[in-house]
């Protein structure tokens, strides 16, 4: 899939989107206070699942917060599909019936929602594809991260860790990719393979249904049985939840030292695992920037504006106006200057219990 990228550095993304509100919604001062011109308008947000903690902990509240800052009189409809495409269909159709004026949609199955987007188009309701690229139809905007770059970062971090340990040629790696229903998964996989192919042996590779940590744990257990515990030198996990599942499998198998393992989303448990040495890295996505940008576009649309996006992404059918944010690879030495500096988590939130000593050693306390 060809995509043109315009990258906003993650550390600066919040400043960029906050400043961009003026371009999307008229006067920045006026709209930050709430112009009232969205009175009677309804904005709908639909997220795909709750197994990945980011959606309920960050995406939902941040999106709602920014909408209310810019448009206090706007009504918000929200639904989480719990990884059920039929449930999401009912939620979106319900919003259309209730008179939603804009829909921000993070699709459970991004290939199957084109009919829903078409229903919205017939009612002249603009759709913002949130996080996952919807295929097969045109729509208003796409807001996400450079997902191929995410996979490249994960692949490079794993390769660097293997080289540092001197184990690159001494065994095989296991790849735990995301759900096939999420087109982002294909981009993560593509980026990782670009880095790893020809440099490591891939012993087992999975497309993990539903991004499920439990299923990732089962896949890791199968890999340990098939390849042998001592033959697995690294794990490429596409997100933190699945990394947690893989780590549970390896602990159960009796690993004295865990091989390096990657992640994504900077989940609290993953950040703590990085500090204690159980996980090698995560990819930090500035979700505040993504949620705020999407909320600003939604408010602009209900007020009759249509901001010009910095780039376009081809979804196989149309060139979609897009905002592509830059991911950040985070290892132990970068937690302070990224995750904590941006206020994603405080040091007190991270450094609890058994993690406190590791935090002190890392200079976080």
Automatic annotation (TrEMBL):
Residues 1-21 form the signal peptide. Residues 43-306 form the Periplasmic binding protein domain. It comes from the Bacteria. Keywords: Signal. GO terms for cellular component: outer membrane-bounded periplasmic space. It is found in: Cell envelope. InterPro entries: Bact_Solute-Bind_Prot2, Peripla_BP_I, SBP_2_dom. GO terms for molecular function: carbohydrate binding. PROSITE patterns: PROKAR_LIPOPROTEIN. SUPFAM superfamilies: Periplasmic binding protein-like I. Pfam families: Peripla_BP_4. This is Sugar ABC transporter substrate-binding protein.
